[in-house]
Automatic annotation (TrEMBL):
Subunit: Homodimer.
Reactions performed catalytically: 6-carboxyhexanoyl-[ACP] + L-alanine + H(+) = (8S)-8-amino-7-oxononanoate + holo-[ACP] + CO2
InterPro entries (UniProt xref): Aminotrans_II_pyridoxalP_BS (IPR001917), Aminotransferase_I/II_large (IPR004839), AON_synthase_class-II (IPR050087), AONS_Archaea/Proteobacteria (IPR004723), PyrdxlP-dep_Trfase (IPR015424), PyrdxlP-dep_Trfase_major (IPR015421), PyrdxlP-dep_Trfase_small (IPR015422)
Higher taxonomy: Bacteria, Bacillati, Bacillota, Bacilli, Bacillales
Keywords: Acyltransferase, Biotin biosynthesis, Pyridoxal phosphate, Transferase
Keyword Transferase: yes
Assigned protein family: Belongs to the class-II pyridoxal-phosphate-dependent aminotransferase family. BioF subfamily.
Domain Aminotransferase class I/classII large: 40-376
Keyword Transferase on entry: yes
Protein name as annotated: 8-amino-7-ketopelargonate synthase
Organism the protein comes from: Paenibacillus taichungensis
Pathway: Cofactor biosynthesis; biotin biosynthesis
Molecular function via GO: 8-amino-7-oxononanoate synthase activity
Cofactors (names): pyridoxal 5'-phosphate
Enzyme class: transferase
Length: 392
């Protein structure tokens, strides 16, 4: 095992070793987190709508836990498929105006399992260079050819579509909102290309579900493209404040996945109490439009204040706001200074982002007040000046 120490030393030399650190709940103060021995403003959580500690969700989970027990005991295809699942899936399909829905244990398993089910040897997957790692892993598992196109570069995608015209099945897959940049995919163009080339289109709404649309349906729905997306994926781990994921699509697709998606077949069903909690979270996601409004206006203000100060915040307009600083070490020092100043803002380094684009990734929540975000933004600018990320 000596090789491990050597590889770890290489990570450390490149300011790129990761550590697990405790983050604890701050009672009665949902926008904050304990880290080390301090309370920090939490600008590093994906609990966008502030639902993670919602009392109605907690009550549902507690009640279901008492009647249903802790674990589901088996895969859904064996004896783990409690009626709670079917009810949730019906509600999801209605919400998304799709024929059917299927719940997975998490987004990673949904993406990796579904892509593997849809394509295989002799097929091709066209995937944005900045797509989430779970999509990349699904492509690798599938053994289909991986045609990676430059980020949001539709000309490059077209070139690759032409090159692979003769492949058996073609799948175009993209994040709707990119997780480390907060910018959006060019969904209208992707739909046009999928139609032109006879490809399937899969969209991952992990960072847009709950956030866009009158009832939080997501970006595809907001743009009126939901009927043109063959495989709609979303998660319960971000704006729903819980854990789990879903696929929406045709009845045929869902029937096929029940037969072919290995994470569904070979893994134990989510705890029933959690499935009950997700149903309550869905009701709140649909009804509490004020959370979206609050989140989106806070995001715009926060982003423009950092951008006006001179930071490179990329081109997005979502609750994900990066400050791109370049070198790993610089991002780490920035993150440490933020922590000393009372803010949790995590350094994101390669391979999560391309080399030379290390960054601080802020993610906002409906829990934050405008005053908290104003103060945070002033503090971030002060640190940016001290570290030379901003010039005075
Ligand atoms: C977080 C994320 C996932 C994985 O979802 P989990 O439920 O956390 O496993 C998938 N895709 C994207 C774009 C994500 O950001």
């Amino acid at each position: 095992m000596n090789w491990m120490e050597k590889e770890l030393a290489l990570f450390a030399d490149a300011s790129n070793e990761r550590y697990l650190r405790d983050s604890a709940v701050v009672p009665d103060n949902p926008g904050y987190t304990w880290r080390g021995n301090r309370v920090l403003l939490n600008l590093a959580s994906n609990d966008y709508l502030g639902l993670a500690r919602h009392p109605a969700i907690i009550d549902t989970i507690r009640e279901a836990l008492l009647t249903e027990g802790g674990g589901s005991g088996a895969s859904r295809l064996v004896t783990g498929n409690r009626p709670l699942y079917g009810r949730l899936e019906e509600a999801l399909a209605t919400w998304q105006h799709s024929e059917a829905a299927l719940v997975f244990a998490n987004g990673y398993m949904a993406n990796s399992g579904v892509i593997r089910a849809l394509v295989g040897r002799g097929d091709v997957v066209f995937s944005d260079q900045l797509n989430h790692a779970s999509i990349v892993d699904g492509i690798v598992l599938s053994r289909a050819e991986h045609a990676r196109y430059r980020h949001n570069d539709m000309e490059h995608l077209k070139l690759l579509l032409n090159k692979h015209r003769d492949k058996r099945r073609k799948l175009i897959v993209t994040d709707a909102v990119f997780s480390m940049d907060g910018d959006q995919a060019h969904l209208e163009e992707l739909v046009a290309l999928k139609q032109e080339y006879g490809a399937m289109l899969m969209v991952d709404e992990a960072h847009s579900g709950g956030i866009y649309g009158k009832r939080g349906e997501g970006l595809c729905f907001k743009l009126g493209l939901h009927h043109d997306v063959d495989v709609h994926m979303g998660t319960f781990s971000k704006s729903f404040g819980l854990y789990g994921a879903y696929i929406c699509g045709s009845r045929t697709l869902i029937r096929f996945l029940v037969n072919q998606a290995r994470p569904l077949i070979y893994s134990t069903a989510l705890p029933p109490s959690l499935v009950a909690g997700i149903s309550t979270a869905l009701t709140l996601v649909k009804a509490d439009h004020w959370r979206r409004e609050r989140l989106n206006s806070a995001s715009q203000l926060f982003r423009s204040s950092l951008s006006d100060a001179g930071f490179n915040v990329g081109t997005g307009d979502s609750p994900i706001v990066p400050i791109i600083v370049g070198e790993n070490e610089r991002a780490l020092r920035f993150s440490e200074a933020l922590e000393a100043g009372g803010i949790a803002g995590i350094a994101i380094r390669p391979p999560t982002v391309p080399d030379g684009t290390a960054r601080i990734r802020f993610s906002l929540s409906a829990d934050h007040t405008p005053k908290e975000l104003n103060d945070a933004s002033a503090q971030i600018c002060k640190i940016g000046l001290q570290l030379g990320v901003l010039s005075s």
